[in-house]
Amino acid sequence: TVLQGIILLPLRAICIAFILLLAWLFASIATFRHHGEGSVPLKGWRRRMIQTTLSCLTRTLFFVMGFQVKVKGKIASLLEAPIFVAAPHSSFFDAIISALTGMPSIVSRAENLSTPVFGTILSSLQPVSVSRQDPDSRKNTVTEITKRALSRGQWPQVI
């Protein structure tokens, strides 16, 4: 069994890298030549691509890492709950919640958008960016979340 672990560990790492690169590719395709850069919601095939492929790839990624999540109950729809709260949201487990809820927009610090690979994936979710250097950032974040929540389904849920 130790030998199996030694062999399986590199295979898992390769699978994880492959899944992340696929997610980056689909995120890049969905946002290619999309005008608005966060001020206009993704629509049509772009939004469906993000919802289906990234959700599936994220679930697969966590399965490869050994996580199996089962949802009990009914997940609230966009019109029932335009804002979805996940607490205390302090780890990579938030990605599980995102995958299970159809890849909603998230609130994230602005610096995360410039991270290689993950920044592109994150940008495809059209996050509400929070800048720690901007003194008006909190007010702007609240305004943006409110705008999206009152959009009557134009924007995805915000987590």
Could you characterize the architecture of this molecule?
It is found in: Membrane. Helix content is 49%, strand content 4%. The chain is mostly helical. The protein has one domain. Strands 1-2 form a two-stranded parallel ribbon. The longest helix is centred in the N-terminal third of the chain and has 30 residues. It is globular and about 55 Å long.
Short recap of the structure:
By secondary structure, this protein is mainly α. It contains 5 helices and 2 strands, in the order H-H-H-E-H-E-H. Keywords: Acyltransferase, Lipid metabolism, Membrane, Transferase, Transmembrane, Transmembrane helix.
Write a concise keyword list for the protein shown above.
159 residues; mainly alpha; two-stranded parallel sheet; 4% strand; globular; lipid metabolism; transmembrane; 1-acylglycerophosphocholine O-acyltransferase activity; membrane
